[in-house]
Amino acid sequence: KRWTEAKEWSDQAIQRSCPKELVPFAYLIRGQAKFELGSLDSAREDLEQALSNTTEDSGLQIAIRFQLAETLYGQQRWTEAETYWEWLKQAGASNLDGAGKAEWYPIALLRSAELLALRKEWGRAEEIVLRIRSDFPTCNRACEVDYLLARCLISKADFEAARQVLSSITRRANATPDELVARGFWMTGETYLMQRRYTEAMTAYRDALKVPNQQYWSSASLLQIAKCLESTEDLQGAKETYEVIIEQFSESPFVSTAKERLRGMPSISVANQPSKESNSGTKR
Fold it and tell me: From residue 126, how far is each of 60, 132, 161, 185 by CA, in Å?
């Protein structure tokens, strides 16, 4: 995983015109390194070069197409990524790559399910994730599989079952990427918010805040906490929480929403006066 050095050596191999049969390997390694280092556009170019120089070697084809699909997925170029996932699924269905298939095939299935979820085809997505859980219990993306299953359950309003699955993700925090742990807590909060169980929702969002170095999910959780506070008529608490987002998460995509909701709030002094009419509405 020493990607900077891997990139340097593959750079030299390409610059020094390595033997033709090694060219796709050199581009693949450099593409993988660039992907891991965050240069997705450049990674995609190298991987396309690797694919154009490859032979009929099925193992090499799989490695290149898999990495290219992951790169396009990381760029949210869903339609282009789907072409490669479909190829990989067909290769897996044909038992191509034999024993090694267990490492990449369930991920190809997972990505296909995620694309279905983007299209709101929850039933088909759920069928795939249940198949992955059944057929590939040691899949190294098990947490991602579980998260997608939880989303499928939420689409059916089966909130309790969804929370059980999300809990399995957040419980094994040491084996789960921090980003997914934070997202799991946030989504748990969403299930309670959908049921207007504001106290439990805020507890889950506050758990998300405890996950280190997760600026996006921290600001997302604070926004939802503020909404819950508004719904429970704690306007002072909501106001202070919106201000925290604006002041401490200035680069967050949720700042504009926090400012808008803050502007729409009544003044605290007016809000605290007894109302002549009951207000049963909630803001979301």
Answer: 31, 10, 13, 21
Distance separating alpha carbons of residues 192 and 214, to the nearest angstrom? 21
Convert the pLDDT of each residue in 113-172 to its tens digit: 999 999 999 999 999 999 999 999 888 889 999 999 999 999 999 999 999 999 999 887
Cα–Cα distances (Å) from 170 to 11, 137, 173, 188, 208, in that order, read 40, 18, 5, 10, 10
Residues 6+ apart with CB under 8 A from 176: 143, 169, 170, 184
Please name the residue that has the structure tokens 């008529």. Answer: 233
**Residue 36 has which token pair?**
């891991």
Helix (H) or strand (E) holding 39, with range, is none
Task: Write out the two tokens for 189.
Answer: 């909060």
Q: Which two tokens stand for residue 254?
A: 């949720």
Distances (CA, A) of 241 to 4, 230, 277: 41, 10, 27
Determine the pLDDT at residue 271.
47
CB under 8 Å, gap of 24 or more: what pairs does 74-78 form?
Answer: 74/35, 74/40, 75/40, 75/41, 75/44, 78/115, 78/118
CB 110 within 8 A of CB 148: yes
CB-CB contact of 61 with 97 (8 Å)? no
Tokens 């499928």 belong to residue: 152
